[in-house]
Amino acid sequence: MRVVHYLNQFFGGIGGEEHADTEPQVHDEPVGPGRLLGQVLGEDAQVVRTIVCGDNYATENMEALTALVLEQTKDAQADIFVAGPCFEAGRYGVAAAGLCVAVSSELDIPVVTGMAQENPGVDLHRQTLYIVDSGKAASAMREVLTKMSNMAHKLASGQDMGSPAEEGYIARGILKDTFVEQTAAQRLVAMLDAKVKGEEFESELPAPSFPEIPAPAPVADMSKARVAIITDGGLVPKGNPDNISAWAATNWGSYDISGKDGLQGDDYEVSHRGYDTRYVEQDPDRLVPVDVLRELEESNVIGELHSQFISTSGLVNPIANSRRLGREIAAQLKESEVDAVILTST
Amino acid sequence: MEKAGIPVCHVTSVVPVAKMVGSNRIVQGQGIVHVMGDADLPAEEEKELRRKTVLQAIEALKNEAATP
The domain spanning residue A31 has which CATH number? Predict the structure, then answer.
């Protein structure tokens, strides 16, 4: 089994943050953790090529890096592509996961990476990749590489992958049909029985977890702040120009309100199947309070009402999808120098 | 938004959900069907109520978020 390995400048032995601009380097041998990877992979596998790249270079030149990695991996006749483990290193994780996705889809060979649950690379690509849960501590390198190596062997030989708990990878959110002895009712009663007795039981439906985001500092002076309105209540201009779906929306829209003293029902409609939308359609200010905020802008309680309101439909949205929408909206508002947001949810 | 450092005040009538997903600044809205209003009130009173809700949100943005 021929393995191509991707590392950042730190694990590649070039140096820390001061070398984050390092351009990609190609070595026809294992480097750094790659040597250990070679050991745990066993005799029938070897790391034939290593690509090392600085985190900043990777972030800023992802297209060029991807092209190079694809070319080098193909040229090395790799049977499998391994990236990391990246632990908590965010830029490294994003690059590693992105490269894995590219190699998997372009070259059609198995890919394995490893990172901590909190790494943004996980958020981006957990659904498509097997990402070994590396935890945060790089001191667990051998253990993590062993898991990654086991996974590499399994994937390369086409064996069935076990559950996340069995194999040590981060849940991809995939449901698998299996045969069980007991009916749902019997399992439910057994769980309830265990709960009442204070015994351990395992839920079959893990609740989604929401990482705590520390609250940003308050706005020092609202009378100078640019305030934007976002809603997940699905308010859109008549005709729904961006085709925002009424449920599980995959996009969002940004709609001009400059010069408007309020919103008129005739101009808007609601794309949301989760509540009775008649009241908002009568008067959209009930969801997107442009009338009041415009007055507060004139009386200088707020500095400025942002010229657009942002809308999507927050109904039965997969969380990964909602996170992407959030990231996209945040990036745009950041660019528009918005200081604060009022988010209205139905 | 808050990951990007922009403070948000979440106005919703379903406060438990806002708490569950980790919103740091929350203001109670008037109802699912009209978070920022109340169709049963005369127009002027409704707008006054909306002003009150928006001002609460602005107040929340001016202040440190309470620890959840």
Answer: 3.40.50.2300
ipTM summary value: 0.92
pLDDT in tens, B18-58: 887 888 999 998 888 888 988 889 999 999 999 999 999 99
Residue of A nearest to B58 (CA): A222
pLDDT at A134 over 90: yes
CA of A166, closest CA in chain B: separation in Å?
A: 28
A264 and A120 part of one domain? no
Residue A230 with chain B: CB contacts under 8 Å: 1, 8
User: Nearest Cβ partner of A216 from B5, B18, B46?
Assistant: B5
CB contact under 8 A, B4 and A230: no
The greatest distance separating any two alpha carbons of chain B, rounded to the nearest whole angstrom, comes to 40
Q: Is residue A104 part of a domain?
A: yes
Angle of helix A62-75 relative to helix A90-107, nearest 10 degrees?
50
**Is the overall model pTM greater than 0.95, yes or no?**
no
Expressed as residue numbers, the domain containing A286 is 222-344
Q: Is residue A208 part of a domain?
A: no
Q: Which residues contact A198 (CB under 8 A, 6 or more apart)?
A: none
Residue A292 to residue B47, Cβ atoms within 8 A? yes
Rounded Cα distance between A149 and A41, Å, is 5
